[in-house]
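Progress narrative, work stream C.
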Amino acid sequence: DVGTYYVWYKVAGGANYHDIDAYVVSGGKEIGKGTPTLTLSQTSVSQIAGSTTSVTITRDTNTTNQSISVSSDNTSVATGSITDNTLNITLGNTAGTATLTVKVEGNEYWNEKTANFTATVIPPDTSLSNLKSSWNSQYLGASVYNDGTVSCKTSLDGKTRIGVVAYHADSDVDSIVNGSRILVLAIGNASDGCQWGHYNYTCDNQSHGTYTYSKSGDSGYSQTQALCENGSNSSNHPAAYAAWNYNVSLSSIEGRSDLHWFLPSSKQWEWMKDQRGKVGISSGGYLSSTEANSGSVCYLDGRSGEVYSTLSKGANRVSRACFAY
């Protein structure tokens, strides 16, 4: 039993001595409450709204008569109930994360014991077309797959992950791509290191055929297209050429034949920079399609997320493509 116990000793008298009064050994021995074992067969789940899951509870047999309960810190995300030794979790209709706490009440012999379970509700898979017509901010940073599926999961059976939803607006995200509302940033580099262009002259307002380059505005599409027209190979503007010819096909996306990769403009990098970590950008320089002056271009600093306009056109940096939908 819980409590403090002492050891006493007494010397018994004999023919020549009287009994000695009993003495207690100093300090005593305290027996405290026990701390029971409480474990869950799994400690987290990430599923779509309305899903259910069950988890086995294991605890000391000596505590089976003690009250056990479960509570949630966000009942709109997840709730729980306990049947025998099973924790039943029901995910709500609100995307987010909830912590469910299983608690065995303490008593005069046992301390209270808790175990936590993390439940996350993720939005169901959708498509770029549905997301464009009915925007939901829960999909910002979600994965985009080769057929146009948008999912908060980073892998789907039979599909190839090609990018993430990096930006949404209620007006065109690229002025040349009419009706575009979403920018998708590629998960891989078009080039791990290349120059913007080695010619030390002003590209602004220059035309090399059909398209005229303009460094103003937000259209990475038109800037990339014009830079690629300046020469039929990759030598004149390698970063733009690499992005325009990024070797990940968009032809299977919802029957769209007009989609094209391009080098983001400086403005588009400003819009997308907060999602850069979702595609592995944490350091290095990422070129934009926007010229600053005859010798410099704008670029994204992958570490800070800032967009600068002081990079030499001849410096080797990363080409990362995006497309507008």
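Work stream C, second folded protein:
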Amino acid sequence: TRIINTKKLLFYKPDKHILEKIDYMFENISKDLNSKKNLNGLMCHLNHVKLQVKKISPILTHNNINYVISYSSSNILSISLSILRKFFNHKVISYQYSFIKEPNPIMSTSADYMFIFSKYFIDKYSNFYSKPKKILISGYLYSSLIKKFKKDIKKYKNKFRLNNKFIISYFDENADDSNWSLSTIEEMKVKYKELAKFVLDNKDIIVIIKTQFLKNIPTIMFPDDMQIFKAVNSGRFIEFNHLSTKNIIKKKIYFKNLSFRNIIMPMTASLMSDITISEKYGATTSIETAILGKRNIFINDKKFKTNLDKYFKKNIEFSSLKHAL
């Protein structure tokens, strides 16, 4: 094993023949797409991919790289490394990191090896859009970290004064007003306010809010909502982030990158909780809670149906957060 000094990457000279082949390949793709209408956005994206492919090709030229681990098939770097297999001999390894309800192009991959949670997901990844060359069942990705996270629970319980309280963790899904979000900002506000009111009305309850992204932290999304701030100030409405909310706001981290994730693992919140609440359409946090032997319920205000519904007993799925509380 050899660790590459990334500073040296700046001085790697590209292989001119490889660059010519890359140009030729993308030129043929462009000719084909130019004959079709309304594909300007795709053409722009392909140009970004082409630049990235050329940019990172010298790394493969100057290093004997056999395997590349791709964490997301929709990431432009992952796409570029997959394309470069045409010119180099490396294999791409990918892995499932979240629940997937139906096959879709964003989550699909053509990796050489794909690790998935269980047999249930085979047809989700071997689909119309693309499929890995080999699918391997590995179980849930983060199961091996349970012992590590358990060590931190006592520290968090003391920090947040959780003893002798009933602890509920709420896991959100990304909320904004774009075409790519299933929850709007207003819908998220209603849910945060319901949780805040529940905390203020019940002195023996603590609610831990574990957001997926820093921009969705309640007091960042709704800085003028007094009910939410009152709940936070009670010490029983906890914004659980890897950085304090004050530092996030002070340094404006969420402005620098709107996709900046809250890297606290959901299972850390689950380990502290008596019960957790997830959105049904984002079932990864439900899986992560279940493998700990902890209770999880989910909210299905979007009326999602799956072929797993027959396994859900009463008091697992609720039509609204208000009903669940």
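The first strand starts at residue 67 and ends at 70. No further action is required on this item.
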